[in-house]
Amino acid sequence: MEQKRRVGYAIQREVLDEQNVEELAEKSDAKTPLSEKIKKSLRCSGPRVKRSMLSCVPIVSWLRRYSLRDWAIGDLVSGISVGIMHLPQGMAYALLAAVPPVFGLYSSFYPILVYFIFGTSRHISVGTYAVMSVMIGGVTERIAPDSNFLIWDNVTNTSVMDTYTRDHERVKIAAAVTFLSGILQVLLGMVQFGFVVTYLSEPLVRGYTTAAAINVIVSQLKYFFGIQPERFSGPFSLIYTVIDVCYLLPKTNIGTLVVSIVTTVGLIGAKEVNSLLARKLPVPIPVELLAIIIATVISWQFNLDTKYGVEVVGPIPSGLQPPMVPEVSILGQVIGDAFALAIVGYGIAISLGRIFALKYGYRVDSNQELIALGLSNTVGGLFQCFAISCSMSRSLVQESTGGKTQVASAISAFVILIILLKIGELFEQLPKAVLAAIIYVNLHGMMKQFSDIRILWRTNRVDMVVWIATLILTVLFNPDMGLAASIAFSILTVIFRTQLPQYSILGQVKGTDIYRPINKYKQAYQLPGLFIFRSSATLYFANAEMYADALSAKSGIDITKILTRKRKQDLKKLRREKKEAKKAKKEAKKAAKMETKMEAKMEAKMDSDTEAEPETETDEYELEEPEPPQISTVATVEGNFQTDRALPHAIILDLSPVNFLDTVGVKTLRNIQKDYGEIGVEVILAGCQLEILDASKEKRGLFKMSTKHLLSGT
């Protein structure tokens, strides 16, 4: 068994570094010029025009392949079912947008037809959506607050609300911000900016929609209790609204409260019956439609508005609105809100669209979806609609009732058209409390998302922190500012994770060729005289210093201390050499003086002897010259730096997790090689990506191979 686990490696070539590989493989550095790229992108041909047409107008591609036999019945049933859902949801979500209910029906008609032509998802149901509606409501009530439309009534000597002027102004604001968000979506789609949704992680989106649901709940309390709280805007407005609602609770309209409670209980009970009978019923029971029909009949029969003060929907004009260009003066005030609407609406739609595409095996074009939603909002803004996205509840109904294509959405739009032309005025006596109850019951699924906290606690706590932070930021700063703050926080968590990666020393798992961190695996043993160091994140300016510190800490080599000691020894050696040289120079001078004196004495003696005995011969013996003292040359000190015997002979830096290097990262690697090389430890880089090699420009000694291959080749 032990033999089977062992894998032998035999490299039948010399070990090559990256420079050798590039020379052997004749790497090409040829790059396509920018002018050539532009020329290629502008090149036109028949097949390319056809592909562009089919991608820009997807209905041309799939409608000609539409199967009446297989898909028509399912799309018909699905379209009627979703159209019935559009009626109560459109009217209810119009209250969230702070516009008259009929404009919710307009928003359930025009945008759907546009998406039918340009959309690529077959199953999502676009139209009014709670999160988008509450964001629109925040804009309309901020720019056109109730306080701007109070007029003095001379009869009652009190201030009364000019609701007609207020609603007219808010409709213009909602249409303007919707039109601008659509323009932004189209522009982003044309520049292939669909990838922006990648910055909206699933925890962020779910936390954001949960927070938006809380905003929706608070905004509908006035209709649920029949009170008129003050409108607040800006940060912490939600908290101020809750405090004001609590203050006004003693003034609750009892009739409105009874209608709200009865409707809520009835809807919850009916939905439970729906879920129990889901397998037996061909289509779900339209409980919301039944609720508004029954409530309208009861309100009309018992005059709930006049006798009990229950607020009703009011006049609903028949027919369609003519197109109207938004006021330019409003556009400048809502740019930030429009961008937030564009991103949120697209993020929700593409997320749900990809779920259905994965389930049924087709492709959703993210950039085309951005353009389709943008055109839907742009056209909708011209017809006084407010911003739309896709609804999960309607999309699930569209799928479960047999919907196969966007023909189902077109049929649902036709249902709304009939309601607008013929039936809409019948719902003038519908209590707004019923619409608030419908909203509350539909938010049941979003409130279930609180269970994500428990799941994320077990799986990924960083994602849990993102979820909770998104919820808190959105609740405190409203949906528009909360989205920006949440995205910034989410990006910061990514930065923090790269700043605090896992550093480890790898060891060989006994009996295998597998290498694992020695601090986590008991059977992973460090190879003698060798350190294999790996970081779980890339190497760049934010963590470069920590990378070097972690290498020192994990390897147990205090490189700073060792280099300091070595430099002190080198300095001490240099001082000794200077001292010895100075001493030798001094001795040489002293010896030279002595030699000069001796020569002078000998010359003087010879002169005196010559004068005394001029005719005498020279002595039989020669005077021996005294040997000059031995002068030493410059002293050399055999004081080479002695390295610690515990130091490894090599350190391998496994860079396989590193996908890019900046200048700071390159400098850090060079400094590591230089510093450890000074103390006799060879540093080898392994597992380098080509991008890293191009960034470092130091290919000699860089091995583009896995750690195990590098070890087997040594």
Automatic annotation (TrEMBL):
Subcellular location as annotated: Membrane
The organism's place on the tree of life at top rank: Eukaryota
Keyword match Membrane: yes
Ranges in a coiled coil: none
InterPro entries the UniProt entry points to: S04_transporter_CS, SLC26A/SulP_dom, SLC26A/SulP_fam, STAS_dom, STAS_dom_sf
Compositional bias per record (Basic residues), positions renumbered to this chain: 573-588
Compositionally biased residues, Acidic residues: 609-627
Organism: Paramormyrops kingsleyae
Domain STAS: 520-687
Membrane-crossing residue ranges in chain numbering: 71-87, 93-118, 173-195, 256-273, 285-302, 338-358, 370-394, 406-423, 467-496
Main location, first listed in the record: membrane
Name this protein carries in UniProt: Solute carrier family 26 member 6
Cellular component, GO annotation: membrane
GO molecular function (one): secondary active sulfate transmembrane transporter activity
Keywords: Membrane, Transmembrane, Transmembrane helix
